[in-house]
């Protein structure tokens, strides 16, 4: 996927999750935020230094190795929420609020400006 396709997909997923109801669609919100985050990070990495990972496996290590420590920390936390809530089947409004805040921070770290 090329640079602009990553950004387009990230924005589309971001827009979708923003319309979802945290009380009834929490699993989908978490997964969609996760997907949007992957694409924002891929866009940023590709734009910044010409490569990125096409998977979430190993992404925190890749970010650490490229001195993107804050992005790595944010993604690790997001991954923890995703794994804990998806496989643990425990959703709540606080988790949705937190993953949405993580997404805002990831976008900020990636230089994504809302218009």
Question: Could you walk me through the main structural features you see in this protein, from its secondary elements to its overall organization?
Answer:
This protein is mostly helical. It contains five helices and no strands. The chain has one domain (3-109). It is globular, with a radius of gyration of 13 Å. The two termini are 24 Å apart. The model has no long low-confidence stretch (mean pLDDT 88).
Topology of this structure?
Layout (H helix, E strand, L loop, with lengths): L2 H16 L7 H24 L9 H7 L3 H20 L4 H17 L6
Short description:
It contains five helices and no strands.
Supply the key terms.
single chain; 115 residues; 5 helices; mainly alpha
How far apart the termini lie comes to 24 Å
Rounded to the nearest angstrom, the radius of gyration is: 13 Å
Helix coverage percent: over 70%
Number of strands: 0
Order of helices and strands: HHHHH
Q: Approximately how much beta-strand content do the residues carry?
A: under 5%
Gross geometry: globular
Supply the number of structural domains. 1
Given as residue ranges, the uncertain stretches (5+ residues, pLDDT < 50) are: none
**Which structural class matches the secondary elements?**
mainly alpha
């Amino acid at each position: 996927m090329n640079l602009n396709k990553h950004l387009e997909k990230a924005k589309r997923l971001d827009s979708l999750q923003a319309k979802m109801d945290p009380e009834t669609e929490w699993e989908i919100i978490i997964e969609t935020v996760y997907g949007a985050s992957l694409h924002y990070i891929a866009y940023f990495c590709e734009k910044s230094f010409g490569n990125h990972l096409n998977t979430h496996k190993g992404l925190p290590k890749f970010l650490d190795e490229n001195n993107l420590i804050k992005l790595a920390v944010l993604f690790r936390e997001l991954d923890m929420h995703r794994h804990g809530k998806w496989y643990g089947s425990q959703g709540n409004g606080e988790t949705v609020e937190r993953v949405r805040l993580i997404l805002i921070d990831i976008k900020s770290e990636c230089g994504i400006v809302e218009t």
